[in-house]
Amino acid sequence: MHGRIKLKTTEEQAEQKQKERLKKLHFYETTRSACFAKRKAGILDEEGLILSGQLLAANPDFATLWNFRREIFLHLKEEKNPEELQTLFEKELSFLETCLRVNPKSYGTWHHRGWVLDHSPHPDWKVELELCSKFLQFDERNFHCWDYRRLVVQRAEVSPQEELEFTHKLIGTNFSNYSSWHYRSTLLPLVYPDTECRVGRADEEALLTEYELVQNALFTDPNDQSAWFYYRWLLGRADREETVSCLYISREGQRLIVSFSHPVNVLLPRDELILFVDGLPLRVTWKSPHPQLKRSAIWQLSLISSMICELPPNTINAACSEHNFKVHWRDGRIQRECILYKGRSESWCRDSATDQQLFRCDLSVEKTTVLQSELNSCTQLQELEPDNKWCALTIILLMRALDPLGYEKEMLQCFQTLKATDPMRTAYFDDLLSKFIIENSILKMEYAESRNLTNLCHLDQMQLVTHMNLTSNRLKSLPIHLSMMQCLEVLEASDNEIESLEGLVQLPRLQEISLQNNRISKIGDLRPLASCPSLILLNLKGNPITEVPDFESELSELLPSLKDLIV
Predict the structure, then answer these.
(1) Are 257 and 421 in contact (CB under 8 A)?
(2) Phi first, then psi: what are they for 330, rounded to 5°?
(3) Which of 68, 272, 276, 482 has the highest local Cβ count within 10 Å?
(4) Which of helix, strand or coil describes residue 513?
(5) Nearest CA among 452, 515, 441, 510 for reference residue 478
(6) What DSSP letter does each residue of 421-445 carry, written as one string?
(7) So what's the pLDDT on residue 9?
């Protein structure tokens, strides 16, 4: 009827939208082609800025067009005077802010903004700080903006102290600001450097004052993860000092093993690790205990946590009263010495786990008091929030920091609480518990037997162990790092779920292995044992492989040194 607006039908609306899309597509493709044509022809003018700007305003993630704009600016830099160029750059910054409103997490836009300011005749970095603060109000976890802010802070020469106060302000507004907590962890070591010059750690007094801030966050919202993660950083420790933790010499095996506090590169330069015998340098070839290990803490003259080398013939003279072995690492800054006396079949020199402060730091009276107070507070919080897994996990870490052996029983109870609270992560908690059980075994020097293990770790600390009992655990494999246990003679691993023996490689002294009631199913699973020349006893009773036809004959070919097979 007259005077009434005609409403379009659904079909008409769809057709109209399709026409609009085609129109936009045509404009987009035409403009894009024009930009590409100008770039190919080397025409770098302001029209190229206009054309590329029309596309980037709608789609800021077109990286090629940002590159095109930078090429134009570099060209115009040679043609325009500083005032004209400054005006051009200021217009670009305004355009970039428009693009960021379209997509605040555009990699290309943030990168281009930094480039523009670096090439601007008169950059105003203070304005950029305000811009970052504005965008962080919209999204406090915008890591693109945080990365850009770090660039701005560097260029504007903002002090770490000012940035630390900035994080405090944001955290005070919202305890859930994970990015601010993380940024704070990078600033504290700069504002309050560690008095012992440990890289990445802040002064102890500064760290202790941080606990109060975290406590406020935890009791305000116990289920928020941000403050709990920061709490774990506070409980952390600096990297241990690089050392040669153990030097072992075998007269019978004519080999030397070097263990390190940190994993080292198997392919390190020949002159980085130097062996001296009786004061004279000896050229040797270093290798890792296992061919698959590329980083390790042992050096059998190879790369991992340990390295091994075979000594040249006649290096060890039976008639000599003693031989002095010394290794130089890191240009001689790190050394370890060991003496092999006449009549001794082996010798070693090593630090104990306690001496190395391997699993915890020496605590001052003040820090012990603060951590004990934190443990009490977390225990109270757990009573209020019994289903809070972060609280239970932090209690475990506090116990480990204070006294890992004294709190052993309580730690086991906390793990039961954790698994009941978060059953989906039971496997993770089991692995973490295994790690702590092994650490306690090393601290107590009770290597022979461990229970409730789902994985093996810290094997570089068991390099001198000869007998290991892993019976009745839940292990699914014997990992390649087991090859670092070069002195191992007897391994009991019955009643597990073991399917892989990849770690039982090149163990020269291994004589007996018990794998009863596991899941070894094919002859190929036993192939690693062929590299263990001293193996004489193997127990495979209760494994599926015993039902394979001709299993025993194939095994005798694979392991000719084997004298006793139990099936």
Answers:
(1) no
(2) 55, 55
(3) 482
(4) strand
(5) 515
(6) H-GGGHHHHHHHHHHHHHHHHHHHT
(7) 62
What tokens appear for 158 in the block? 């903002």
Whole-angstrom CA distances from 194 to 203, 232, 404, 478, 501 are: 4, 18, 25, 40, 44
Round to whole Å and give the CA distance between 116 and 139: 24
Residue 278's pLDDT is 95
Identify the DSSP state of 456.
Answer: -
| pLDDT per position as a tens digit, 426-466 | 999 999 999 999 999 888 877 656 778 999 988 888 889 99
Q: Pick from 307, 245, 313, 311: which is nearest to 272 by CA? A: 307
307: which residues sit within 8 A by CB, 6+ positions away?
Answer: 257, 258, 260, 264, 266, 273, 286, 287, 288, 296, 298, 299, 300, 301
C-alpha to C-alpha distance for 261 and 242, rounded to whole angstroms: 6
Q: Comparing C-alpha atoms, which of 281, 284, 207, 209 is closest to residue 238?
A: 207
The 3-state secondary structure of 96-153 reads HHHHHHHCCCCHHHHHHHHHHHHHCCCCCHHHHHHHHHHHHHHCCCCHHHHHHHHHHH
Helices (H), 157-267: 160-173, 178-191, 204-220, 225-235
Task: Please give the pLDDT value at position 386.
Answer: 92
Q: How far apart are CA 518 and CA 177, in angstroms?
A: 48
Q: How confident is the model at residue 301 (pLDDT cuts 50, 70, 90)?
A: very low
Closest CA to 339 of 320, 314, 365, 367: 320
Residue type, 83: E
Q: In sequence order, which ranges of 225-284 are alpha helices (DSSP H)?
A: 225-235
Structure tokens at 480: 């390649």
Angle, CA 298 vertex, CA 344 and CA 302 arms, to 5°: 100
Task: Give pLDDT, residue 180.
Answer: 94
Residue 347, H or E segment:
strand 346-350
Which one is predicted more confidently, 330 or 413? 413
Mean pLDDT of the chain, nearest integer:
88
Tell how many helices (H) and how many strands (E) occur in the chain.
16, 14
Residue written as tokens 């205990």?
A: 289
Kindly provide the residue ranges of all beta strands, DSSP E only, lying in 442-559, ordered along the sequence. Answer: 467-469, 490-492, 512-514, 537-539
Tokens of 369: 């008091």
355: left (phi over 0), alpha (psi -120 to 50) or beta: alpha
Report residue 52 as tokens.
Answer: 């590329």
**Rg for the chain (alpha carbons), in Å?**
33
C-alpha span between 381 and 384 (Å, rounded):
5
H or E element in which residue 25 lies: helix 10-41
**332/328 Cα distance (integer angstroms):** 5
User: Which residues pair with residue 63 across a beta bridge?
Assistant: none
CA 459 to chain CA mean position, Å? 19
